[in-house]
Amino acid sequence: MIDLLQISLQFGGKYLYKDISFKINLGDKIALVGANGTGKSSLLKLITGEISPESGNIQKAKSTSIGYLPQENIVHKGKSLIEEAMSALSDITFLRKKEIEISTLLNNKNLTDEEQGDLINQLGEVHHRLEDLDSFSSESKVKKILFGLGFKDDEYSKPTEQFSGGWQMRIALAKILISQNDIILLDEPTNHLDIDSLNWLTNFLKNYNGAILTVSHDKHFIDEITNKTLELFTGKFYMYNGTYNAYLNYKMERDQLNLKQAEQQEKKIKETEKFIERFRYKASKAKQVQSRIKQLDKIEKIELPEHEKSISLKFPEVQKSGKIVSELKSISKSFDLKSVFSNINFQINREDKIAFVGPNGAGKTTLSKIIAGKLKQTTGDFELGYNVFSSYYSQDVADQLDKDQTILETLEGMNSELSQNQLRTLLGSFLFRGDDIFKKIIVLSGGEKSRVALAKILLTKSNFIILDEPTNHLDMTSSQLLQSALVNFSGSLIIVSHDIDFLRPIVNKVMDIRDGSVVLYEGDIDYYLWKKNEQKKSSLFKNVKNESNSGKSLSNKELKKKEAEKRQLKYRATKKLSEEVKYLEKRIKEFETKIEELEKILFDPILYNDHEKVNKINLDYNKNKEELDKLLLIWDKKLEELKAIENKFI
After folding, report:
1. d(CA 301, CA 234)
2. Is 542 exposed, middle or buried (0-12, 13-18, 19+ CB in 10 A)?
3. Mean pLDDT: which of 87-101, 464-478, 491-505 is highest?
4. In whole angstroms, what separates CA 84 from the centre of its chain?
5. Phi and psi for 216 in degrees, rounded to 5?
């Protein structure tokens, strides 16, 4: 469908990539991964033609349609929501206008019979083409997509300019999905979605007939929808077949090997440099010195990804708070007489790490602001506990940074105990490297300001932190670093996030906020998802039972549909574990083969003539046996977990 041939692109005299080539085929669903600044967004712009390559060319058929969702600067105005969404069906929109024009002309009483007949024929042709395009069901299809992305029925007539930035992105995404392009390019499509709309989008894209190339920091999302991974690293592209998790397993092994080779190479370079320095001025060694210098010149240094360079984030030790961190009693909040939620009662305890989830607009941010003391409740009482010091992060906080300060000055103003070098390291993990740290806040993009605000949070000594969508402007490496820091944080947390994979190792409770009320789930995010799935199945069972009791037997078609839904739920629930089990089985087989080979050697009597070799083989054999035993234990545990989930669908 699209061929990129020998593409080169540079900015400011530095090549992002040089002479790269790859192909996007029909049915490809590709995750584009790489550190921030490696050129992921630029690649999407190259494919759309928004920017041109330095050299090389991009080949695609004229008939190939492309849909593109950028990260920022999406604005719609001048139309209602439904009009804007319907405009994605350009052929139908054009024909509808044509239909109105012809109908208006037919109202002219001065038309001759010939003119009238001609217009009637034209109108018939328009109706025929509209029928071919299935236009009469098009509006219901459009509304289905809008509903899936979280829009409500009463918003269809709302002017698009009245929607906020996050909802503007959803409008643009809806139009792309409605258009049914041959290829869709998505740059961080999950940034402004809640868990419900994210799940809907995931299922939609899994069944999408066209090709997909997406950039996303949401590992769960891309693992679910993609069948290939395109890695951008040191100006080169590497394509891997299979799921994103399969790519991660391969990458982990590859990076470990690269790290080992890099260490060996560095050792060899130092030894060579030491030899050159030692014998540089000895005439008898001149020839050897020159030979070693040439060897050094020929060495291509093994480059390691940033995360291999031992960057880590860590919150400072915090004071222990009282047992009760925060308590909410009969809390309600309204805006302009419109109730967001009412009669909210719950308690946050020491070491609670709670995820706030639910549909956008349900009040997750509003409730987190009340708890952070940034917003006053309409009614009810809210109290912080003994010795509680809180910090709050959101996009609003990022916009309130001192515009005249540099990034480094902003962090230095926190009066932390870190040296300037340590602050530089911290900023490096948030993607600010080199002279970037001397940029003033006023020149930063929204995403960059968000990262500065997050870095500030790490320097506070708060024992209660509230984070509203902290991963939206981070790449995967930075997101993982923040995740690790939050896992090890000794205080209490509230995190508003739709990123399941980010939340998974951090939170121990989940608060579902929807329809004006809250439900607290006393477990991690997987427990919450399992409970929601059980509730859905229970609701489905009750509906089936009610239909049966009312004498309405399900048709074969309906039964097949429900069975298919059940199979789909089972597939989604077991997909990740199934892949882990398959991967473990592959590794187990490799170790078993290796052990068999070593046993054959050990059974050979000739071996025992060489005691040193016997010891080496025995060590190798025991090491492989230990690794195999570990893998078998993990495999057995994962298999039990998989069977337990599968049994729930029997």
Report:
1. 12
2. exposed
3. 491-505
4. 27
5. -160, 145
Residue with token string 């069906």: 89
DSSP string over 398-436? HHTS-TTSBHHHHHHTT--S--HHHHHHHHHHTT--GGG
Direct distance between the N- and C-terminal alpha carbons of the chain, in angstroms, rounded to an integer: 42
Question: Quick check: 306 pLDDT over 60?
Answer: no
- Reading the block at residue 467, the tokens are 């984070």
State phi, psi for 67 to the nearest 5 degrees: -110, 140
Give the distance from CA 208 to its chain's centroid.
18
Greatest Cα pair distance, the chain, in angstroms, is 114
Percentage of the residues of the chain whose pLDDT score is greater than 90: 28
* Dist. CA 46–CA 53, nearest whole Å: 7
Residue written as tokens 């290796």? 594
Averaged over 251-256, what is the pLDDT?
A: 80
31 vs 219: CA distance, rounded Å: 10
29 CB-side CA count, 13 A: 20
Distance in angstroms (rounded) separating the CA atoms of residues 591 and 297: 40
DSSP per position, 201-242: HHHHHHT-SSEEEEE-S-HHHHHHH-SEEEEEETTEEEEEES
Nearest to 340 by CA among 306, 318, 369, 302: 369
Contact 130, 95 (CB under 8 A): yes
Half-sphere exposure of 180 (CA within 13 A, CB side): 10
User: What long-range pairs does 630-634 form, CB within 8 A, spacing at least 24?
Assistant: 631/584, 631/587, 631/588, 631/591, 632/588, 634/584
CA triple 91-95-100, angle to 5 deg = 155
Residues 470, 482: Cα–Cα separation, whole Å:
9
